Amino acid sequence: MANPAELFGRKAEQETHYEKLPQPVYYIESSDDDTVLVGIDVEIKQIGDAAPVVTWYDSSHERSMSALEMVKKDNYFAFRSADKKMTNGEPAEYYFAPMDLNTYREKVKDKLIEGRDFESEEEMINAFLEAAKKNGEE
User: Are strands 25-29 and 38-47 parallel, antiparallel or unpaired?
Assistant: First the structure.
C-alpha cells in the first residue's frame, strides 16, 4: 500500500531545518507592531517547502510568525511577516538587533513592567534568560 502522504502528492518525509540565531537576547523593532520589544532564543524553522517560521520568547510568552522574506547580516536579522500586515496592506517588517546595555537603557527599560537597572550586559542578559525560564520557556 502507498504511503498516505504520497497519495496526496507530498513527500513521505518533509525535510526540516532549524537555525538558532547567535545572540541570546535581541531588541526588536517594528514600525507597525508596538507589541514587540525583546526576543529571547530566536529560531528560524523551515519545514519542507512551507514558509519559514520565526519563533522567539518575549519574556512572557512565545511568539511565532511566518516569514515572506528574511535578511541576516552579521548579528542582525530582519523579516517581512506573512501573518501581520501594516496599515497600508504591506507585510509588517521586524528588525532584530543584539541587545546591549545601552539599547536596554534607552529603548527597553522604561517599557517593561519591571524594568530595572543592571551593572553589566551579562547581568542584563542573564535576567532576561531567567525571566524566560521562570515564565515557562524550556
Answer: antiparallel
